């Protein structure tokens, strides 16, 4: 195993998002239970064999740092992740041809430039109790998952000059805000009607156990991410004076009323030349990561992973 952990280093893949499923289950992977399943993914049964294979692939192709051993709970979650990704790769008809598999094998087992087929086959059989063909099919599925992930990571986004300038201003403008959060738009609207005047707002703010909270200093960029609002909504907020309370704003967790107490731009001067190019590349990376996270969240939702209680 230590040898394999060194060999597979070049093809390790890492997902940005943490992969967490709720509800612990211990899996009894005995051969007498092969006709049963351990759960469902995309509405279809996950057999013991499929889950066992996924778990083994995780151990082989996703070594822990410094050759540490996997904790079982982490290994189990990663195996479910692998099942989801392998099924999605198959659904999208992502192909890995024999040449690609062969080249990867040579890369893994031919570190000194000389590939020894006999050693490779014997090594696989001794270390993984499977023949070379089985190992290569495992590697093929792994490479297909790699391709799937790469497709959704490499999404290029172009930004106009105005968008670059706006994003730069967002990162360099700090806000101090007051806000009140509500579960429903009606609750927010009723509170707004009762506290639209700044004097009544501040009176409510100063009460014990007030519904009004303070936040800041915080960048516009970070605040937009917290609220999950777009640039148009943020621009409307920034246009408010300090004695205005916003109308109810839909956020990720409900609705908010927001008062912008202060805003200050700390950018020394506008972007030019290499700085602008570097900032555009940063924006593209952020957009790609955001797109990947959205895809991953949507994939998990579609997969609707269900783990059977086998205890």
TrEMBL record:
The name this protein carries in UniProt is PpiC domain-containing protein
- What organism does this protein naturally occur in? Candidatus Abzuiibacterium crystallinum
The record ties this protein, via PANTHER family, to:
PEPTIDYL-PROLYL CIS-TRANS ISOMERASE HP_0175-RELATED, PEPTIDYLPROLYL ISOMERASE
Recorded hits in InterPro entries, A to Z, give: PPIase_dom_sf, PrsA_foldase, Trigger_fact/SurA_dom_sf
Name the keywords, alphabetized: Membrane, Transmembrane, Transmembrane helix
Annotated Gene Ontology MF terms?
Answer: peptidyl-prolyl cis-trans isomerase activity
Transmembrane residue ranges: 7-29
């Amino acid at each position: 195993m230590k040898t394999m952990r060194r060999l597979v280093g070049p093809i390790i893949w890492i997902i940005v998002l943490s992969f967490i499923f709720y509800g612990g289950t211990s899996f009894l992977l005995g051969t007498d239970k092969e006709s049963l399943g351990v759960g469902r993914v995309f509405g279809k049964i996950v057999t013991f064999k499929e889950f066992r294979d996924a778990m083994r692939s995780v151990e082989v192709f996703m070594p822990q740092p410094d050759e540490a051993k996997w904790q079982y709970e982490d290994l189990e979650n990663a195996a479910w992740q692998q099942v989801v990704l392998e099924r999605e790769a198959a659904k999208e008809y992502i192909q890995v041809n024999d040449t690609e598999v062969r080249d990867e094998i040579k890369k893994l087992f031919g570190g000194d430039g000389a590939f020894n087929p006999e050693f490779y086959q014997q090594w696989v059989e001794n270390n993984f109790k499977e023949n070379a063909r089985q190992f290569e099919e495992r590697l093929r599925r792994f490479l297909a998952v790699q391709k799937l992930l790469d497709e959704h990571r490499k999404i290029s986004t172009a930004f106009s000059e105005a968008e670059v300038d706006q994003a730069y201003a967002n990162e360099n403008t700090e806000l101090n805000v007051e806000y009140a959060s509500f579960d429903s738009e009606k609750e927010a609207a009723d509170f707004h009607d009762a506290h639209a005047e700044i004097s009544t707002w501040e009176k409510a703010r100063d009460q014990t156990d007030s519904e009004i909270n303070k936040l800041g200093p915080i960048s516009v960029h970070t605040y937009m991410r917290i609220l999950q609002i777009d640039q148009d909504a943020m621009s409307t907020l920034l246009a408010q004076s300090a004695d205005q309370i916003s109308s109810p704003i839909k956020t990720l967790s409900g609705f908010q009323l927001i008062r912008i107490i202060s805003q200050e731009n700390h950018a020394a001067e506008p972007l030019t030349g290499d700085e602008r190019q570097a900032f555009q590349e940063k924006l593209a990376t952020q957009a790609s990561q955001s797109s990947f996270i959205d895809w991953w969240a949507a994939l998990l939702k579609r997969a609707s992973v269900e783990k059977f209680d086998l205890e």
